[in-house]
Amino acid sequence: MFLINCPYCGERDQAEFSCGGEAHIARPKNPPELSDDQWAEYLFLRKNEKGIHYERWNHEYGCRQWFNLARNTSTDEILAVYKMGKAPPKLKANIPATPSGEPSIGSGNLSTSKKDRF
Amino acid sequence: MFNNNKYSFLSIARNALNNHENWQKTWNSPEPKKSYDAIIVGGGGHGLTTAYYLAKNHGINNIAVIEKGWIGGGNTGRNTTIIRSNYLWDQSAALYEHALKLWEGMSQELNYNVMFSQRGVLNVAHNLHDVRELKRRWHANRLNDIDCEWLDTKKVKEFCPIINTSPNIRYPVLGATLQRRAGTARHDAVAWGYARGADEMGVDIIQNCEVTGINVKNGNVTGIETTKGTINSNKIGIAAAGHTSVIANMAGIKLPLESKPLQALVSEPVKPVIDTVVMSNTIHAYISQSDKGELVIGAGTDGYTSYTQRGGFNIVEDTLMAIVELFPIFSRMKMLRHWGGIVDICPDASPIISKTHINGLYFNCGWGTGGFKATPGSGWVFAHTIANDQAHELNAPFTINRFSSGELVDEHGAAAVAH
Asked: Exposure check for chain B: N or C terminus, fewer CB within 10 A?
C-alpha cells in the first residue's frame, strides 16, 4: 500500500487509483503490415521490470484523470509523477544489484549475501 | 541394512530407541559441481517436481536445482493450498486433471505425508451470470470425465452448514459447483517431499544460490552465472514464478508476463468449523480450514506490477468483507498472519511450459494465481519437455508461440481470482 500524488488532486491513498499497466506502448501506425510476432509484441509482451517501471494510473475514485508514474517495483517507491503525453523522465533508483538483492524496505525475500543489500 | 531414510511405523519405533537422534537429513546441501546434464532454476514445487520426474521418468540424475532462498520459502509456502481440476477448456482440464491424479498417489509415492485431503471444493454462484458460467463449466468438466456436481442453494447449505444462504444478502448464494475429489494439501510438505525424493535419486539441491546471468553461445545455452560461480549445462529449465521475467531478461527474452502481489492470511486457530473449501470468483474470496484450525483465506491480486511480496490493505479488507457476508459466524475472528507472494500472470491466465528460440533453454511460468494445484503435473510435463526437447502432449498447447498464433487458452473464468 502506498500514497500516490495525483497531479490533479494531490496525495491520495493508492486504493483510490487503478493501474493501467506499462506506459509508452504506442499502437503501431501500420497495422495491416504487421507480422503475428509484431502484434504479439504490441498486445502481450511486457517489460515486467524489477526496478524502474513506467506505468499508467487512473484516479478512478477521484478526478478520473489518467497520468503516468515511475515506480521502483522492487520497493514500491514512487520516483516521478508526470502527465499523459509527456516523455518518461530519466531516473536513477536503487536497483537491486542482483535479482533478489532486496533493499531493506522491500520484501522479506532477502538477498543471500550482505554486500548486495543496501 | 535398515534404511533409515524410509519413513514407516517401524522406523519411528526404531528411532525412538535412540531418542530420535539418528534421523537422516531430509536432503543434502552440496556445493555445486562444475557442470550438470540439466539445471533447474527455482527450488519451489514446480522446479523440484521437474527435477524429480527428470530423474525418475527420464533417467537424468545429474541435475542441479538452484534456489536463491530456501526450499519452501517462495510461493510454494505462500499459497492457500487449494487443489482442483475443474477448468473449462479441454487443454487445461487435461493438464490439471493429470496433476490431480498424481496428487492422489503422492504421499505413497514419496513416502512423505503431504496431508492431501479431498474435502471437496465449492465454487459459489451469486448472480445469474455466475450460474450460467458455472453450469457451463460443470457440463464441460463432465464431458472431460472430471467429477463435478451442481448444488442448488439448499444443497449448498446442507454441504456447508455455516454458509449464509439468506436471499437478502448483497451477493446471495444461488448455487455452487462441487468437485468432491478436490481439496487441500500441506504445501511445504510437498516441497520437502519432492526435495527428499529428488535428492535420493542424486539431484543436487543448492539453496542460497542466486542466478545472476545466463550464458548463451551461438543460440545454444551453455550455463548459468550464480553467486556460487559458473555452472555449465546445455539444458536449463526456468521455474522461477514471479521472478521469471527477471531471469528471462538475462537471456534477452521478453515474455507476456506481469508480476503482481497476491495476498493471503490466516486466522487464529479454532475448532473444526468448515470441512470443505469455499471459493467465489464474484466476491473475490476463498476460504478453508487448516489441520491446525486456522482459517486460510485468500484474496485477489493487487492491480499493479510489484516484486515486494506485500500488497494493499484495501484488498484484504474487500476479501474479509466478502468472507464475513458469506460466513457471519467469522465476523469476530482475529487474523493472525498475513503475507504476499509474487505471481506471474499471463494474459490468458494459462501457463507457459515451453521451449524457446534459444536451444536448451526452457520456461515453465505464467501459472499466475493458481500454480500450486498443478505442481506434480507441471513437473511431469516440464521434465518431458526438457528431456526430449519436445513438448508432452499435455503441454503442447501451452507454448510461448500461442501469443503470436492466437491459440490462447482463456481460463479467466476458472482462474481469474479464485485459487
From this structure: N
**Rounded Cα distance, B403 and B33, in Å:** 37
Flag if A40 and B259 touch (Cβ within 8 Å): no
Query: How do beta strands B285-289 and B229-232 pair?
Result: unpaired
Q: Partners of B66 in the beta sheet?
A: B41, B206
The pLDDT value given to residue A100: 56
Residue of B211, B243, B306 to mutate when probing chain A, most A C-beta within 10 A: B306
In angstroms, what separates the C-alpha of A102 from chain B's closest C-alpha?
Answer: 9
CA distances from B366 to B128, B184, B371, B404 (A): 31, 22, 8, 16
Q: Beta partners for B230?
A: B225
Average pLDDT over residues A86-108: 65
Which amino acid is present at B363? Answer: F
DSSP class of residue A80?
Answer: E
pLDDT of B288 above 80: yes
Q: Which residue has the cell 511460468?
A: B365
Report chain A's mean pLDDT, rounded to a whole number. 84
Coil, helix or strand at residue B67 = coil
Reported as a single tens digit per residue, the pLDDT across B299-334 is 889 999 998 888 889 999 999 999 999 999 999 999
Q: What residues contact residue B237 under an 8 Å CB cut-off, 6+ apart?
A: B38, B39, B40, B41, B47, B50, B362, B363, B364, B382, B385, B386
What is the structure's pLDDT at B417? Answer: 53
Given A44, A49, A75, which is nearest B347 (Cβ)? A44
User: Hey, are the CB atoms on B405 and A19 less than 8 Å from each other?
Assistant: no
Q: Is the C-alpha dihedral spanning B186, B189, B195, B200 positive or negative?
A: negative
A82-95: average pLDDT: 87
d(CA B54, CA B134) in angstroms, rounded, equals 37
- Please provide the DSSP assignment of B395-414 as one string: TTT--TTHHHH------HHH
C-alpha grid cell, residue B418 = 479464485
Burial track B294-333 (b if 16+ CB lie within 10 A, e otherwise)? bbbbbbbbbbbbbbbbbbbeebbebbbebbbbbbeebeeb
Of B259, B312, B406, the CB nearest to A48: B259
| Average pLDDT value for residue range A79-107 | 73
Cβ distance A112 to B209 less than 8 Å, yes or no, reads yes
